[in-house]
Amino acid sequence: MGFEPIPGPPGIPFVGNVTDINPENPIQSLCNLTDIYGPIWQFHLGGNQRIVIASQELMNEVSNEERFSKIVSAALKEVRNGAHDGLFTAYGPEENNWGIAHRVLLPVFGPLAIRNMFDEMHDIASQLVMKWARHGPDHLIQVTDDFTRLTLDTIALCAMDYRFNSYYRDDLHPFIKAMGDFLKVSGDRARRGAIAQMFYREESRKYWKDIELLQQTSREVINARKGNPTYKKDILNAMLNGVDRKTGAKMTDENIMDNMITFLIAGHETTSGLLSFAFYFLLKNPSAYLKAQQEVDEVIGNAPITVEHLSKLPYLNAVLRETLRLQPTAPSIGLQAKEDTVIGGKYQVTKGTPIIALFSKVHRDPAVYGEDNEEFRPERMFDAEFERRNQEYPNSWKPFGNGMRACIGRPFAWQEALLVTAMLLQNFNFSMDDPSYQLQIKQTLTIKPKNFYMHAHLRNHMT
Ligand code: HEM
Fold first, then answer.
1. What is the DSSP string of 303-372?
2. Which residue in 148, 151, 262, 270 is the catalytic one?
3. Active site residue 323
4. Is the ipTM of this complex over 0.90?
5. What's the predicted TM-score (pTM) here?
6. Is 270 a pocket residue for ligand 1 (Cβ < 6 Å)?
7. Does the active-site annotation cover 407?
8. 42: Cβ below 6 Å to ligand 1?
9. Is 271 in the pocket of ligand 1 (CB under 6 A)?
10. Is pLDDT at 463 greater than 60 in this prediction?
11. Among residues 122, 117, 109, which one has the least CA distance to residue 300?
12. Sign (positive/negative) of CA torsion 116, 118, 123, 124?
């Protein structure tokens, strides 16, 4: 078999390609370099090789869990400082806690259990509607900020019956502030490396204090529940009482704490980014906006939204799928080969080398999505076409990750995003603050629109 070297930018001795990657928006840099080097290329940071893959064909190959597994490296490895072997940052089945938590929690995040969380989701979504109604059409809506309040309050209420009450305070709840700072610094630390890190002593001190606060608060929530048990079927009770059928083990308090922090981390920015991009795309595409709102008017009208309505909104469903195709809010995942191997028929990959699966490009593969792959066209995401394409081009739409390490919160996020989008379109007409706004991206662990503002004009009715 003839091997070929993996192409890539040349780089500088010792530091590698650090100057090729914009620290403010690394994903955009990876996309730009993909345009130059093609669907598989490599770069080096320090002495370490990283491989980027960016086509459906390669995505399909690395989705084979017999050959490849998730890697916890870069920013995720830093997030592990705070979330330890919680589901998201665990190395995998080799850590017992991952298996126990995965098996205990899978049914709790299943579609039926999520239906039971509808009322709590509705409660927080109504708070957002009330806020925008109260502020009136002149109010400049900071779209991602308000959606982040919504998603954090929702996951905290559904997971552990805890109210951050983000819409009733101007400042951020100390837990939310600590979590935001912790995530930001985790990203910064990953870019720096150990030696440079030594020059950031004050930042490090605060970083570990923030982690302490996250754990302390989680411990308090657990102890409060233990002191006042309820029969509520929420995620915290499932973690406290659930028994793993395979091992007979229960989750430890430490692991429950780590997973509570995990759900808050993994469960808010991604969904808030999805909602923000969805409104951006709707406002930029008036015909899609009209169809979405017409669907809401026909299916729900002036009635209060119920959980049954949500399965009758195919256009909104397609809008959310198409939004995550073009702007996957978790824009990449890290994988590794389990053994030395060859990918794409000719590129050698060493066991353990980080492989970055770049969804932002995989999702625009012209071989799958055609000439108009850059366009926002929800119609391509209706069930029939969506399923046919997934058959013909497996793993061409991966915003929720892969295999057993895929997102456990997918049904939760989907129900929440559908409900909120429907409720907002039902109650308001929206306009962009600056109609000439061109999408800019802010990247932390996830991506979201930057400086995106809109106005909400109350429609005739309120529900
Ligand atoms: C894992 C995306 C919402 C909890 C993942 C992964 C992706 C993802 C791509 C795989 C990460 C990797 O391989 O490193 C998303 C998107 C969401 C979303 C796009 C919203 C639109 C949520 C929500 C929750 C959640 C609402 C919790 C309530 C998790 C957890 C994992 C995970 C715990 C780790 C699962 C494991 O490895 O066992 N998510 N997520 N996510 N997500 Fe989500």
1. SPP-GGGGGG-HHHHHHHHHHHHHS-SS-EEEEEESSSEEETTTEEE-TT--EEEEHHHHTT-HHHH-TT
2. 270
3. no
4. yes
5. 0.97
6. yes
7. yes
8. no
9. yes
10. no
11. 122
12. positive
